[in-house]
Amino acid sequence: MKQVRQLDERDIQALMQLDAATNSHPWVDSHWQHSLKADICLGIEDENGLAAFTVAMKMADEAELLLIAVRPALQGQGLGQNIFNALVKKLHGAGAHSLFLEVRQSNHRARDFYENAGFAETGIRPAYYPAASGSGREDALIFAMMMDTH
Known about the structure:
This protein has a 7-stranded mixed sheet, with helices on both faces. By secondary structure, the chain is α+β, with helices and mostly antiparallel strands. It has helices spanning about 10-20, 30-40, 80-95, 110-115, and strands at about 5, 40-45, 50-60, 60-70, 100-105, 120-130, 135-145. The mean pLDDT is about 95.
């Protein structure tokens, strides 16, 4: 397994493929174009290509985790934790002290991951996400973590 590295425009196709394999509403090309220029985008590759990625937006002394994904066949093997730890280290080094995110209320696996990583649920955004089924809306839970203690 290769080290975590900063992603760039050359990675868009691989990002879009992995995002589509792990996200019911994947980003389109323009989202990736913007994030690769404006946000912190990290990835881990293996012999089969992009194995995991994460995207975070930093503003002043806080950041928001926008996406984190691991190739489905590799989930549960620690890649998510590895890339998350690298992101926290990079954000903290850039002066961020807190990290926020939204997660679908129904995404229990992700919620467990975030709670184990040190996040605490701080609120709810009603009807925030389009439902994965395609009809209706789903609540988002807001999580926060202070990185000074992580």
